[in-house]
């Protein structure tokens, strides 16, 4: 019983660390020279052409038109 609890705890901890490691900040550079730092990877909606992201500074979910985005890149955390 103790081994099972320990094994389940280790598995849960490893899973949480893996998931937490996947969400890195991204830099979205716009055509007008602004840089937006996002919390996690932005999602592109191919139907509407909008890029949805969580702003790292405000914590709010925002959108920008894909035509206004020059480049998206991962930041070293």
Shape: elongated
Mean pLDDT: 82
Order of helices and strands: HEEEEEE
Largest sheet: 3 strands, antiparallel
Our Rg estimate from Cα atoms comes to: 17 Å
Distance between the termini: 39 Å
How much of the sequence lies in strands comes to: 35-45%
The parts where pLDDT drops under 50 for at least 5 residues are 16-21
Contiguous helical run count: 1
Number of strands: 6
Level of helix content?
A: 25-40%
Short overview:
By secondary structure, the protein is α+β, with helices and mostly antiparallel strands. Helix content is 27%, strand content 36%.
Structure description:
The structure is a single chain. Helices cover 27% and strands 36% of the residues. It has one helix spanning 2-22, and strands spanning 26-30, 35-38, 43-45, 50-54, 61-65, 69-74. The chain contains one helix and six strands. By secondary structure, the chain is α+β, with helices and mostly antiparallel strands. A hairpin with a 4-residue loop joins strand 3 (43-45) and strand 4 (50-54).
